[in-house]
Write a structure and sequence with these properties.
Bound molecules: flavin mononucleotide
Shape: globular
Order of helices and strands: EEHHEEEEHHHEHEHEHEEEEEEEHH
Number of helices: 10
Oligomer: single chain
Largest sheet: 4 strands, antiparallel
Radius of gyration: 22 Å
């Protein structure tokens, strides 16, 4: 059965929710492990005080019994603890009583680089908040919870996925990244950066070259590009390959089907080739600036400064976690397609059989 995910939830609404279908029965989940990933997403040097205000925690409403998946839809919830300050402003039903708390006044100052302007035009909103609440990256929290479940499944089949920041504000050392973040904060500006995700233990043969929608490179690319603020995705040596000759661009094959290099990032023809999958995502500087950019007040049509709202200086460390789980989700989906099975034991048996079948020709690189 295919793995599928649907999410809902606004940034300051009551909660974020995810429904996962197609998980095999008998997968053991660990609340602490999911909460640890949620916590990783909230940490990072450039993040706003909101992350200290609320510690995300997963709740499970369906599909799990005594820590084991039932093979039925798994329903996850991550509550927005900050919602208590937005009870009137983000009330799902017409609010009662006098306006109080946050979000009581319409937002009419669209931020360049955010969903604000396109969102109000597309959906016929007067209040920019109706667009930004969902466009905000807050709901990546529930994607992290779902992706953490995918990581648990992948771990059962020997695949590990890890994301890390490799560049922040053009700096590549830890100290440089911190200094750049401090400097941007002092200037009331924002930064972007680059994250790298590496998946190890991936067998050859996940994905397909038959249709572009089945290609694993396309699916991982779309998953990363689908994350807020991502403006570029690179697989293996990516853009740099375009500047090389073929003799310097491909990964020669040695006896034992070992590769000397991994310039392809573990993906050839949209199919995993047994080498680690290596992908990068480039994040633009965050669009909410404490020293706002020029914009227009949509209520008056006059020139104005864009909305200023509590915001991160940079969120590259957080993106590393969000990108990690996005890749994990796509790998889990591809593994489900390859191995099938209603129960985890079926999936593990299919994996054993497959690795045995290819084992006399292919062995994982040391
Ligand atoms: C983990 C994460 C945290 C983010 N935090 C902020 C933030 O605090 N302030 C902000 O303006 N944008 C933030 N963004 C980026 C915006 O959500 C994003 O730029 C916006 O939704 C417009 O989408 P686009 O950049 O993909 O075009 C964050 C993105 C991610 C992935």
């Amino acid at each position: 059965m295919a793995l599928a995910l649907v999410t809902a939830g606004e940034s300051h609404g009551p909660a974020l929710v995810a429904i996962l279908t197609g998980l095999p029965a008998g997968l053991r989940l660990d609340k602490d492990a999911i909460d640890a990933d949620l916590r990783r997403r909230q940490q990072g040097y450039g993040r706003s005080p909101r992350q200290q205000l609320e510690t995300d925690e997963v709740e499970v409403l369906a599909g799990l019994r005594h820590g084991l998946t039932l093979g039925t839809p798994l329903a996850l919830v991550v509550r927005n603890r900050d919602h208590r300050n937005w009870l009137w402003g983000m009330s799902p039903w017409p609010p009662e009583g006098e306006p109080e708390g946050k979000g009581t006044k319409p937002v009419t100052l669209p931020r360049p680089g955010h969903a604000d302007l396109a969102g109000v035009l597309k959906f016929d909103h007067d209040d920019v908040r109706n667009a930004l609440e969902r466009a905000s990256a807050r709901h990546t929290a529930v994607h992290v919870a779902a992706g953490s479940v995918a990581k648990a499944l992948l771990r059962e089949i020997g695949i590990e996925v890890a994301g890390r920041p490799v560049e922040i504000g053009g700096e590549t050392t830890d100290d440089g990244m911190r200094e750049a973040t401090d400097a941007a904060r002092a200037d009331r500006d924002t930064l972007g950066g680059i994250v790298e995700v590496v998946a190890t233990g991936v067998p050859p043969g996940l994905g397909s070259y038959a249709e572009k929608a089945d290609r694993l490179d396309a699916r991982i690319g779309a998953a990363l590009q689908g994350i807020q603020a991502v403006k570029g995705v690179e697989i293996g040596d990516g853009f740099d390959l375009a500047r090389r000759r073929g003799s310097e661009a491909h990964d020669e094959i040695d006896p034992g089907l070992r590769r000397r290099t991994n310039r392809a990032g573990g993906l050839e023809a949209g199919v995993s080739n047994g080498e680690p999958i290596v992908v990068r995502a480039a994040m633009k500087p965050l669009p909410t600036l404490m020293r706002p950019l020029d914009s227009v007040d949509l209520a008056t049509g006059e020139a104005a400064q864009a909305l200023v709202e509590r915001s991160d200086v940079q969120a590259v460390e957080a993106l590393a976690v969000v990108a990690e789980v996005a890749v994990a989700w796509e790998l889990a989906r591809a593994a489900r397609e390859k191995l099938g099975g209603d129960a985890l034991v079926d999936m593990l048996a299919a994996r054993r059989h497959y690795l045995e079948r290819i084992g006399d020709r292919w062995q994982p690189s040391a």
